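Deliverable D5.2: sample structural annotation.
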Amino acid sequence: MALGDSFTEGVGDVDAARPNQVRGWADRVAEVLSAEGDWEYANLAVRGKKIGQVINQQLDQGLFLAPDLVSIYAGGNDILRPTADLDALMRGYEGMVRRFAEAGSTVMLFTGFDTVESPLFSKTRPRTAIYNEKVREIADKHGAIVADYWRWREFSDLRYWAADRLHMNELGHALMASKVLNVLGEHQVTEGNWADKILAPVLPDLAVNSRGEKLKEELGWATEHLVPWIKRRLTGTSSGDSLSAKYPKYVQLSASVN
C-alpha cells in the first residue's frame, strides 16, 4: 500500500486510461509484484497533500487495510512553505510510522530529492536535509526501510523530469520503480531481484536550444506551470482538491490495466 502526495500518486507519468490519469512508480512496482507473486495493491496518495493532510486523510484508511508493506512519502509540499514547522510535522510523521510498525507492517520511507542543481528549488535544500535526517532517525527507531532518493544522483538529469519541473516524467517514474524494487530485494521484503523486470529507461538526446528558444521555453513554463502554482498558493487551493485516491481498495495490477 502507498500513502502520500503527487510523488506517489504518479503525477508526471501520464496515462489517460488510469484513475486520476496517471500511472507512476508505485503502480509500476505493483505491476511487477502482482505478476510475479500473490500481491495486491492500494494507493491512497493524492497530489498536493501535506504531512498533516496525509495523517488526517490517509492514516486511518491505511491502517484499516492492514498492509504487509506500506510506503510513505509526504513532506515535499511542506518543505516548499518556509513557515512550516518541520520539527512539529515530523513528530506527527513519526507517529504515523509507529502506528504501522506496531500493527505489523513493513514500512518504507523516502528521503527528499537533492535540489542542489535546481535553479528553482535549490533554496529548499537545507530544509530537505533536515527532513532527511528526521526520516533516517524515524527509520532507525521503528525499523523502517529507507529508499534514499537524496543519494540517487541519476535523477539530476533533466530528461527524467516533466515539463512542470516539479514532478518526474514517465522515464523518471520507471527509474524510481526499478530503484524501489531493488531496495525491497536488498531488505528481503520480496524474494529475488525484480528490479530487472522494469527495463532501464532509454533517455532521448539532450536538446540543444538557441537563446531565443530557451527564452520561449521559460515563458511557456511560467505561463503554464508557475503562474497556476502561485495562484493556488495565494488562494489556499490544491491541485488535488477535487481528486480521490486512485486505488482505495486492494487491486491486482497488470501493465495493460485500463
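Annotation notes: The chain has one domain: 2-251. The mean pLDDT is 89.
The annotation will be released with the project's public dataset once the embargo ends.
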